[in-house]
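INPUT
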Amino acid sequence: MAFLEIDGIRKSYGAHEVLRGLDLTVDRHQVVTLIGASGCGKSTLLRCVNALETIDAGRIVLDGDPVSGRGVDVDRLRRDVGIVFQHYNLFPHMDVLHNITLAPTVLGVLDEEEAEDRATELLRRIGLADKAKALPDRLSGGQQQRVAIVRALAMRPRLLLLDEITSALDPELVAEVLNIVRDLAEDGMTMLLATHEMGFAKEVAHRVCFLHQGAVLEQGPPEQVFGDPREERTKAFLRRIVEAGRL
Amino acid sequence: MSAATTTAKPPVTAPPPSVRLPRALPPAALAVALLVCLGAAWTAAVLWRAAPADGAWSWALRTVAVAGGLGALTVLKPAGQAVRAAARARGAAVDRSRLAEARAEAADARESAWVTVGASAAVLLLTSLTLFLLANDHAVQATFFSPGAIASSTADVTRAFGTNVFIAVAAEVLVLVWGLLLAVAKLAPGRAGRPLRLLATAYIDVFRAVPSIVVIYLIGFGLPLAEIPGLSALTPTWAAVLALTLTYGAYVAEVYRSGIDSIHWSQTAAARSLGLSHSRTLRHVVVPQAVRRVVPPLLNDFIGLQKDTALVTVIGTIDAFNQARIYASNDFNLSSVTVVAALFVVITIPQTRLADRLLARSGTASKGD
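OUTPUT
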């Protein structure tokens, strides 16, 4: 059984249906990449998995446990499912270290000392140990996004969702963030990520899913989806990406 | 334009270089300055004659008369500069090679003329105020600015002002807590939070609508009637603290709420996505950021609260205003009330300046967000 199973989920904002019966599975230690045009539902899908959005129909099952619907302890679910946002969303009034230790200490997972040890270790690993006491606005976008990833990791999630985490970055800062994701993939972190970095998707993903109008239109190994797409829509999308010089 | 001429390029012509010379403005400014000086001199003479024959008060008044009269003459300086600069501008304007100089002089003349007008307006205002105080055999001055009455009442009024300060500080501490509770109640989430939301909204609506003097009246005279152990034994001072807390809690709740609303939802999303509950998100992420933003409007509400402490007079608390009224009725003179006004000005102005500075700072800080 897959680690994450998404069965026919639907989500509307008013009259606009963003997700239209979307099915998707992610196995343990697998990296699945979502590609597709803006507005195809990538971000909404990730937000639904993290329960930041409720779903109108269908179900989401995490490790055999149905985690969508009424009565689910979303706060407990979110300890297992971390998410990193496009705009980092660090807490501007706390230093970097406190950003990372907040959730583990407040939720009683770690005491203060353990949390700081873990945070310091994580910061050391991403090369930002010297920024522990800095406020987020003193960091570059790439550094902020690396901290945001580490903040999500501090809760030791079993699934990590990455929502276009390099889209807001200057081009020269993208690599430093992607390197961390690459390391995580090598360590076996289960990840579901939406991205516009096709080269990166090709390299790191076990499977690529092309989303179109709120459903998965085509999926498969990266070589197949990028090299020999079957669907007309996928071909058209990739053609535009190539024209934009992004592949 | 005919079809034939459109084929040819239009001739390149620049308008002839020109200088806009100030004509009427500098002489007009000079005339205004002279008139104002005459008025000031006359007022100074009236003040000199109004001063008593001798004594410290006489010296003070005469010093003011002389200093004010001479001070008014300073408006002549920019007026003279304006007229001279205008003359220089006219001289330079005839020579094409000195056009830049002419423009600069013209600009100087205009600026000096407007400085003259502004300064004259200030002098005129001070002159009118002095005449108002001196009018009708200086009745206003004698009633509100009697040096004797001020000297005799200042000590007691200042002592009673301590009560105003106490009420204000105690109420402010309580308001900070009560307002936050109300704001959080108004933001209670979901269907379960609805009754709490409605209650908080109703409270805030009612207490923002009722004048604080009425609330003070109701608490001061209503609570003792209820004979509730503890609550009904409140001294008038504490009744005032309670009344102002109830009223200003409603205002401050709205201030907090606007601050909480101003925090971008992505902060909440980030906190919730880490597993923090609604209340923990408020406590650790949203409220700390909101509080920083609402300090300037909070200070403004506090200044209002401090001034409203003078309303406790209606329930018999001996505060500065009540003390001043006792002096006023004994002396048949309102100068003690002027002392109250001065005391409030002295404690309020530093706070308004602080609020302005914080506002300016938060303005520049939020541009970076």
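end of record. Chain A touches chain B through 24 residues (CB under 8 Å).
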